């Protein structure tokens, strides 16, 4: 049986309080499509006001520290994130793996912290263009998945996002046959890592998804939704992606 589709907007470092109205507009569109799940992960500053503005809509964070508290200036724990009103966190986004040097072990620890706090986790994996050109894309992505994979995995709280680094923010999208191959490889790897229950873990595609290509990407076997950056910032752009998933 196909998994319920999950469409997640990653606002990255975009959005001031004025943009709360966009989250309201997006939540209104999502509320018309009860057969799918939709979330927005705004910057941390907007989590609490967004959760207050649209209490029935899923708001998430973009990162979380693995420690419960302590000397980690500028960081937020999973309990703090939960307290803001977030229900999940993106973890191990390629921008953080590159800019903040996050390792697979860091991502695994973060995922376990998020789970312990009762939040959902979206673990991101993806190859660089050089790795794809070298024919190593599947090996790299499955290696990241294994290294980042948390204890006590379950579809109740865990989602995987396949995001080829070279497709993020570039307007370039892999061939659907390449997406199909990678999502099948991830599904197979999930089976090895967690056995029963692997089929229910949702695997999102991310990288330049937009209203024009969403339907084709979401129709690929084992693509259970999308993680969307630039095209999630307004209802005008994100609405068609939600509708393509519904
Ligand atoms: C992302 O950063 O998660 C992403 C998919 O970005 P974009 O949709 O802008 O490529």
TrEMBL record:
Top enzyme category: isomerase
InterPro entries for this protein: Aldolase_TIM, TIM_sf, TrioseP_Isoase_bac/euk, Triosephosphate_isomerase, Triosephosphate_isomerase_AS
Active site: 93 (electrophile), 163 (proton acceptor)
Keywords annotated in UniProt: Cytoplasm, Gluconeogenesis, Glycolysis, Isomerase
Residues at which substrate binds: 10-12, 169, 208, 229-230
Entry EC number(s): 5.3.1.1
Subcellular location: Cytoplasm
CDD domains per UniProt: TIM
Classification via Gene3D superfamilies: Aldolase class I (3.20.20.70)
Pathway in which this enzyme or protein is active: Carbohydrate metabolism; erythritol degradation; Carbohydrate biosynthesis; gluconeogenesis; Carbohydrate degradation; glycolysis; D-glyceraldehyde 3-phosphate from glycerone phosphate: step 1/1
One Pfam short name: TIM
Family: Belongs to the triosephosphate isomerase family.
Function: Involved in the gluconeogenesis. Catalyzes stereospecifically the conversion of dihydroxyacetone phosphate (DHAP) to D-glyceraldehyde-3-phosphate (G3P).
Subunit-level organization: Homodimer.
Identification of the protein by name: Triosephosphate isomerase
Taxonomic source organism: Parasphingorhabdus cellanae
